[in-house]
Amino acid sequence: MLIFKNKYDLDRLTPDHSFNRFIREHFGKTGHLQGYLVLIEEGDTHIHLPELKGRLAEIPWEGVSRLGSWFHAVYLTNNEFAIEFLIPDRPWLSSAIRANLEAHLSEL
Question: Are 36 and 83 in contact (CB under 8 A)?
Answer without folding.
Answer: yes
